[in-house]
């Protein structure tokens, strides 16, 4: 527990008790620390409603209560913390609507309320957030339209609104926020088109628009020429038709993740073969025809850990690194560094060959629902230190 005697340290400027497994409530005596500028209680097991004593700390510039068990509604008194630059209440159990007194937090540069249980609309119009650099409202329970006034948050670098019920046209208003480095608005109800104004966001490293209702055609190569630092791109599960050029001499070579599931693709985007840092790609649920290209096995693609091409119109492989639904014949040989081998729901036949035991770092082997037969290789017992999942159901 936090001792009440801390309240006697009247000249204290900085108090960091994070990562200490502290339990109980914050003692009322903390309200006596009138000179305190930074208070970090994150990553503990503190449990109570909003500590009323915090409302007395008018000199406070940074307050971090994240990753605790605080609960209840936020009080009007939080508006007394007018000097706050950092407010992090993420990963707690706060609920209800935000108090209108949040309008008094004029100096905020970082506001993180993510992973709580709030309700109602976020008070966009009530706060003067012109100094805000990070806004994280993921999984908060907020709803309503995000107003065009968000375009006035000119210092914003990180915008995370995912997994809420926000709606409206967000991309138009933020197209001129040139300091933006990361945008995550996945799993919301945003709509509209992906406009060319997003090319202004040249500092972007991450853009996740997945699982919204964006629509229309987008020339991905054109956008990517402006995003030289982009590492994460998620456009999956919208109403988009993604167009790409036949040539591959485009775009950034820093992409690590790309999600284009259900984007009406008809071919493999050629620019991907230049993305030598790519770790995962999702091109599932499209209309891609033909064979999986050879460049996927190029030594320059050695960072690629996984890909999902399921539910397309593929006819096979130039080479056979993996197995897709619908493959027939004997079990294909995967690369020696394979960690996860997923070949379920195909028409694979014959025995499980002994070469499978050469995959000495294999953690998951899933061959369920095929037509495999015969005896299991004796050497499967050698996987005792690594293998975590073995699924052979639905075979012979």
From TrEMBL:
It comes from the Eukaryota. It is a single-pass membrane protein. GO terms for molecular function: signaling receptor activity. InterPro entries: Leu-rich_rpt, Leu-rich_rpt_typical-subtyp, LRR_dom_sf, LRR_R13L4/SHOC2-like. Keywords: Cell membrane, Leucine-rich repeat, Membrane, Repeat, Signal, Transmembrane, Transmembrane helix. SMART domains: LRR_TYP (SM00369). It is found in: Cell membrane; Membrane. One of its GO terms (cellular component) is plasma membrane. Residues 101-279 form the Disease resistance R13L4/SHOC-2-like LRR domain. This is Disease resistance R13L4/SHOC-2-like LRR domain-containing protein.
């Amino acid at each position: 527990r936090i001792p009440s005697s801390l309240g006697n340290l009247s000249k204290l400027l900085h108090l960091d008790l994070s990562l200490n497994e502290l339990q109980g409530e914050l003692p009322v005596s903390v309200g006596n620390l009138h000179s305190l500028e930074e208070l970090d209680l994150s990553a503990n097991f503190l449990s109570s409603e909003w500590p009323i004593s915090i409302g007395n700390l008018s000199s406070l510039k940074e307050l971090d209560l994240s990753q605790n068990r605080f609960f209840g509604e936020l009080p009007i008194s939080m508006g007394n913390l007018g000097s706050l630059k950092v407010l992090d209440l993420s990963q707690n159990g706060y609920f209800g609507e935000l108090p209108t007194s949040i309008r008094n937090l004029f100096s905020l540069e970082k506001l993180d309320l993510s992973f709580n249980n709030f309700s109602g609309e976020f008070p966009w119009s009530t706060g003067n957030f012109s100094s805000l650099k990070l806004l994280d409202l993921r999984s908060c329970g907020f709803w309503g339209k995000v107003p065009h006034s968000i375009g006035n948050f000119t210092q914003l670098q990180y915008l995370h609104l995912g997994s809420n019920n926000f709606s409206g046209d967000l991309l138009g208003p933020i197209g001129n926020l040139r300091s933006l480095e990361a945008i995550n608005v996945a799993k919301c109800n945003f709509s509209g088109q992906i406009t060319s104004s997003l090319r202004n966001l040249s500092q972007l490293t991450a853009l996740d628009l997945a699982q919204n209702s964006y629509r229309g055609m987008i020339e991905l190569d054109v956008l990517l020429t402006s995003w030289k630092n982009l590492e994460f791109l998620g456009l999956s599960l919208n109403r988009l038709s993604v167009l790409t050029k036949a040539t591959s001499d485009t775009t950034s070579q820093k992409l690590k993740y790309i999600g284009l599931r259900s984007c009406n693709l008809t071919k493999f985007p050629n620019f991907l073969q230049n993305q030598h840092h790519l770790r995962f790609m999702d091109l599932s649920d499209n209309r891609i025809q033909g064979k999986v290209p050879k460049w996927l096995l190029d030594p320059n693609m050695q960072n690629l850990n996984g890909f999902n091409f399921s539910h397309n119109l593929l006819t096979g492989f130039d080479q056979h690194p993996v197995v897709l639904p619908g493959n027939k014949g004997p079990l294909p040989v995967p690369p020696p560094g394979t960690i996860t081998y997923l070949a379920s729901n195909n028409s694979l036949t014959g025995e499980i060959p002994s070469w499978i035991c050469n995959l000495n770092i294999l953690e998951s082997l899933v061959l369920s629902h095929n037509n495999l037969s015969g005896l299991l290789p004796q050497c499967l017992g050698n996987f005792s230190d690594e293998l975590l999942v073995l699924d052979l159901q639905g075979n012979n």
